[in-house]
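Anyone opening a protein record will find just a pair of labelled lines. The record below illustrates this layout.
***
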Amino acid sequence: MAMAVMVNPEDLPPWALVTSGTCDLAEQDAPVPKKPFVQVAPIVDLSDLDPGDQKLLKGNKFGYLLHVPLLSDARPGLWAADLRIEYPVEKTWLAGQERLRGWATEREQEIVGLAVARQRQRPAMGRRFIEHVLLPTRKRLGELRKRQRALADRLDQEIPEWAVEVDSRLDPRRVAIVLLSQDCMPSDPVQQWWRETVEHLREGASASGGGMTIIGPRFERLDELPVSEYRKLTPLDSPHGKFSNE
């Protein structure tokens, strides 16, 4: 059943981010273009976020929000594309719209493809994992941010990605937690926080009697981890991010 959705014109976002791939947009090598529509995501002003969340947004720590820094030059605000929402627009309409640069360099703009890819490839994880690993971890991160903001920021900076090695994503019985850093090992306080957190998760899973064993944490550097070992993992991006079935 189709249903019309009415939006007050004053609430419409001023801009949108094209999320379709460049090849789908241009179709330069196609004898006859076959893709008349492209996908876009609304860009909204999030200036009303509290300072802590604004900092997370500018560091692209929210899985579904993508900071678009240069738009504040066109209009004051804290502008971000909301990747939870996408809708199709016809290319001839799109061709007549004003184009604005959102990032200063081509290298910085690569974040768009990475952010869209993260939304598409989010794994579906079983309820047991969500209840005994993900949600308690998020809760502890939130508590840490309130008590020790500096340490919470270090966690975000030093552990840009975490992953698990599981016997099953949908019905996990054995979960090994792996913390991934870029080109150096995390500092001692960051490692200690994760060790205490994983021990807390282990105790909670054991007390529940759910039959899930939690192993770790293991700390790995992305510049040293063999590709064969990385492929055994289920990357989870940031602990702040959500899974496809949440």
User: Anything to note?
Assistant: The first helix runs from residue 22 to 26.
